[in-house]
Amino acid sequence: MCLIKKEKATQKRLQNALEEIKRSNETISTIAKSYSSIYKVDFETDTYERISGSDIIPKTGCASEKMFDVCEQEVAPEYRNIIHQFANIETLTSRLEKEEDVLAEYRMVDGNWHKLRIIVRKRDANGKAIQAIATIRTISETKRKELNLFFEAEQAKREAKIKTRFLQSMSHDMRTPLNGIAGMLHIADQNPKDLELQKITRNKIHRSLNYLISLVNDVLDMNDLESDHFTEKEVDFDVTKLLENINIDAQQLAQEKNIQYILDWYEGQLSHSRFRGYPIYLSRILSIVVQNAVKFTPENGEIHVWMNEKCLDDSTSLLEFRCKDNGIGMSKDFIQHAFDLFAQENSSSRSTYQGTGLGLPIAKKLVEYMHGNIQLESEKGVGTTVSIQIPFKLGKPIENKNNRHQQISLEGLCVLVAEDNDLNMEIVEYMLERNGIRVVCAKDGQEVIDLFEKSEENKFDFILMDIMMPKINGLDATRKIRALKRLDAKTIPIIAMSANAFVEDIMNSKIAGMNMHLAKPLDETKLIEALKQCKEDEE
After folding, report:
1. Tally of CB atoms within 10 A around 131
2. What tens digit of pLDDT does each residue of 70-84 get?
3. What is the signed CA dihedral for 238, 398, 505, 426, rounded to 10 degrees?
């Protein structure tokens, strides 16, 4: 009877032990789910036993050798040396003398982040760790959130610093022209009878006012764009006329600093002139880019601009605009922040180059709104190239109107003709004088510029401009005339006369600022018709 009771008691203990083992295994299995791998490591024998994890790694083996292999093959290169040192069996025991566990975080070759924790499992009589449990957990999501928070905090600090600098810059940039205006008004008031001084002070006041208006407009524009407030509607526009206005304004700015503003006609190709989109936004973008180029290019520097069209399909083209200067350039580090709000590479640039650092952010915002992109290439002390690509729908062609010019008289008008070929000049003179028009002749581009610049305002009613001429070609001559600071330079009709009559040649003449393009050999009827058309357009 006693034996039976003892047997039952033994069975009961065994059953309880089995249930306890089962519960322990369940607990271990549950815990193991939180880790990608768990290993038991014996420091004395330098061996490991895999408790859970991928079957790719053998169940048992040499701990230090396997750790070295895994580290070399799977850990990202920049973390390998750290993990080699961390998992060194010889140094682990000393590091675990006063610690129950040590841990390290590292990135794997596949981009995932892991956390390796080594926990003491058993110590000898002297307290030295002889066995441990090594657990590996994937912490990619946690690490991403941690890094995002870090970057967000750094971004907030940087933006706060930039805005503080912006407010300081605004205070300087607004007070400086205001002080100039106040000072010039005081000087003018003190010298009311000095007409020359009055003229000088007015010009300086106008420049300061224009800068203040530009400054305020930039701030208001950026505020609107940051809130995604776009007000313009898509319309049809002539890109050649838009570029003509941009280039004339830029040429004037460049001349004031003795900078060569060069249109590289042969760098690009244009197959169409009319597009549908946002011409005001495009004009704003291009103005910002070329004005920056002038602003940051020193005296005697050069600025090259050109445009290219790539037809995407029957109804859409990708227009590329480029502006290259040999100015002060930007460092590689600053290029990454050039489109940030209020960004300026050197605070000292505020004293030398007026601006608030809002131009490029405005340009980028507008380019992105039109589904385009803007890129910078720059080198400190060498210069900067800005590339802009924007897709545009093709616009509707302008309807031809059957205008009657018979009642328009050209009698007594004066035409300045630029032609380097004597025979061609004689022909043009004959055609014009037969219709009662006075003719003044110029043999090259430079001479036509000089004659126009030295003439009284409105002396000439038209300019007929050959394209291929010595010294300065007709395109550059037209651009320089349009940039002169006199009213008739902007309004006088300039008509191209050229043996080149391809679409690209016609587009180039329009971009340069010419009103019309006549192909050689000249037809007298078409020539007179063109003059009457220009006269009618003026009226």
Report:
1. 15
2. 888 888 998 888 888
3. -120
